Queue: 2 jobs
Job 1
Amino acid sequence: MAAIHNHHYRVAYFEETTVGTPPNGATWNASGVPIETTMVDVSGLKQEFITDPTLEEHPLDMGTRAVIHGIKNGQIKVGLKLHGTGAATEAASQVAANALSNLLKHAWGGVHRSSTTAVAAATDAKTFTVDSATNIIPGCVIGVQDTSSPSAEYSGVVVPRRVLSVTDTEIVLEEDLPFTPAADDVVHAAITVYLDHSALEDAVASNDTLSWLIALGHESGTDHLYQVVGSVISELKIDLPEGGVPGLEATIECGTFMHGTEDGLSNPDFATATYGHAQLAIGRNTKLSIGEYGADTLAYVDATAYSLETGVGRQRVKSITERTHNLEATATYGLRVDNTTLALTFPTYEEAWYSKLNASTVYRLTLAQHAAPGKGWGLFIPKAQIEGTPGRQVVVDNWGAQVSFRAARASNATGGSNNELERSRILLALF
């Protein structure tokens, strides 16, 4: 067999119509969703093998019988690109779902898609009327672009904000924009991903499982071809490396897996192009604002390091039976809940963080990449408290501060029809 270079990646997923049933070759061709990735790790695809426990007449025969084939599930990890929607959404149109947003919905449970409109008139930097408020609801994210008289800093870029209320065509934002909107400024549609516990509680009952096809050497036949079925994204990490590009790391638990022609696999010829767009560098037009919960004042701050634990995902419910074919030793995948925390390192140390901890001050945090339409993203924690004594960290020979925030369900966006969106303790927006 010829040597194959380790950069022949091709990754695709398929939303299973029947839990645990992978697509056949023709269905992979027609309905598989190839997507650009930054990392693939299949080392977790290991079948268990059990030593035959039979007692032998001769002691040196113990453990020498053929091994018993055990459970064959495991996990994989896939790195995904974090970027915007890919293109501006036309006026009076709803932003389209895409390959990335569908995976994000699977991981967090909920997605809302707003529509593009324009400012009619503004009261201040957070309150304005629009031509149409179709698909703009409390809790969702929209992007506002100053097209009438932009400063050099905000020329050509979209600034995302969470919506607090919608009254007819009047929009009230959670936080001031860095400019006061004017008539005809564009209000861009955004995809808002939010936590929805009901969608994550039972993957089998809600028919919400994925098949993945991973080719590590797609030009070499099937020697490097894997398929996992009956799978879910159990954890999604958001990575924002200093000087790098934003990304997502998906940990995927699977019901079982197949490998090569031994398990009947063949390389598909996908009908659709591989989905993905260029990422933008962290540190350029990347803005962090922290303000007190309930206050609308814009306050940008610098951070030198970041660590996020979303705290919500799915977990395998183990079983001694296999009710659903290809979900080996798995009854379903259920909701996993832990704390949602954002730890930040600031370049200077201020005693005020300690004072705010003692005062039980509640905050809101927005970390976003302001960018041209179709290229930006934003991470929103609408309500959080400092969860421990602020620490000290040396930042380039200076004392910096380490502060960790713990998110809670917000209650300041009201009047809409989507309670889970309004109260989600974390949001990820693509715009």
Job 2
Amino acid sequence: MTTKPEYADPADQANAEATADALWRANHMPEIYDQILDIARLSDVSLDLMLDICHAAEAAQTSPELVREMDRLEADVIEAVGYHRPDLAAHMRSNPVQALRCLGYACVRAVIDEAQRTLSAPPPAPDPDRFDAGCIY
């Protein structure tokens, strides 16, 4: 028994396989985009900037808007990553729409991880040298 659907029309079959491949790549490449995210952040590209580029690309309604966001991706992120890892920059240049989607996903995961670390951190220890006006010394 197979769970893979079979289509009578070869074009539908090819389209379904391409869609499945794109979904697999989008879901199974977080390691690559985590590396890209780390390199970009170490190169002084802010997480806010990357999120803004990815969000604007997702919200783009016309081709010129999407092209503008892909140009921002190239100028701000891919150039910074390519300085340290040209192979990752070439990977992003090969499919910039996928790069925008996966980078956006990696950015959101990074924000969530950072928030969870912040919320789960213990409160800071009281400073024994701090003067407290409410205490009687």
